[in-house]
C-alpha cells in the first residue's frame, strides 16, 4: 500500500501490541530496514501511517528468571540503540512526548512494553528498573502462571493475582505504567479491576461471544474495561478470531463491530499482535494493510469520528492519562 496522503484523517494510527522487536533481535534483523519475512518494520510502519507503536518485548517463560530478565534487557538495549541511531524513532517516556495530529510525520513514537511479568523474578525493584529503562506497559502474564498471577492456561485453577502481583499493580499506578490484562486468567482480571481505579487495557484481545478461545474476553470483561475508561486492542491472531483458526479482514471487522456494540466507540483500538502470530488474516498480511481495515469500516457506514477513535484516539487518551507528565 502506498504512503497515505497528507489529508489522511486517521493519522496517527496507534497499535497497542506488536512483537516485532523480539522477532528482529532473535533473527538478527534490522528493524530500521524493510524486511521480507516479518509482518512489520520501521519503513512499513511509517508507510502505513502508524505514528505510535507499542513494542512488546517477549521472552518465553523459563524456570530461570535471570535468563528471562537477560532476554528482556537485551531487547531493551537493541531498541534503545535503534532510537539512538535513527532519528525516525522516539521512545515515549512521558505523556508530553506523544504526537498530535499536527506533529511531523515520517517518525515513529514507540512505547516500550514487556509481555509477561516472569522477568521480575518476584522483585519489585526490577519493575522500577524497567521503568527507568523506558518500559511503560506491562502485560502481567503471558498465558502461563508466574509470580504475579495465573495466566489463561491456568484458568481452571481459579487463581488470580498473588500478593506480589497486587504489589506490582499498585506500584505501576504510582510509576505511571499501563496495566495490560491480555493473557490473564478471569480471576486475575477481576482482581485487577478491583485494584485499579483508572484505565487499564487488554492490548491484544478479542470477543469470546464470536470465538470461544479462552484468550478472548467475555461481555462482562469488555464492559468492565469500558467502565474503567480503558481500551481493548483487537488481535489479528486467527484462532482468536474464528473457531476454524483461519481468518480474514471481515472477521476482524466483526470483532471490532461487536466490541463497539458492547463497550462503546471510546474503548476499542488496534492490537494487531503482528510478528507474534503465525498467520495474518487474509487482506491484512502485514502492517501496510491497516489503512484498508479503516477503509472497510468506513465503507460500512461508521462515522469518521468513530474511526479516528479506533485508529488511535482511544489508546492516545489512555496513554495521556496514565503516563508521567514529564
Protein architecture, described:
The structure is a single chain. With 326 residues, the protein is an alpha/beta fold. The chain has a single domain, classed as TIM Barrel (Alpha-Beta Barrel). It is built from 11 helices and 9 strands. The strands form 2 sheets. Strands 1, 2, 3, 4, 5 and 6 form a 6-stranded parallel sheet that branches. A 3-stranded parallel sheet has the order 7-8-9. Helix 7 (219-227) links the parallel strand 7 and strand 8 (231-234). Helix 4 packs parallel to helix 5 (163-175). It is globular, with a radius of gyration of 18 Å. 51% of the residues are buried.
Indicate the mean pLDDT: 95
CATH topology tier name: TIM Barrel
Shape: globular
Share of β-strand residues:
5-15%
Low-confidence stretches: none
Q: CATH superfamily assignment?
A: Metal-dependent hydrolases
Biggest sheet: strands, sense, closure? 6 strands, parallel
Give the C-alpha Rg: 18 Å
Query: Number of domains in the coordinates?
Result: 1
Keywords:
TIM Barrel; alpha/beta; three-stranded parallel β-sheet; 326 residues; six-stranded parallel β-sheet
Task: Record the SSE blueprint.
Elements (H helix, E strand, L loop, with lengths): L12 E6 L1 H7 L15 H7 L1 E8 L7 H21 L3 E3 L16 E8 L8 H9 L2 E5 L23 H13 L2 E3 L5 H10 L5 E2 L16 H9 L3 E4 L3 H4 L7 H15 L4 E3 L19 H10 L4 H19 L4
Helix pairs in contact: 4-5
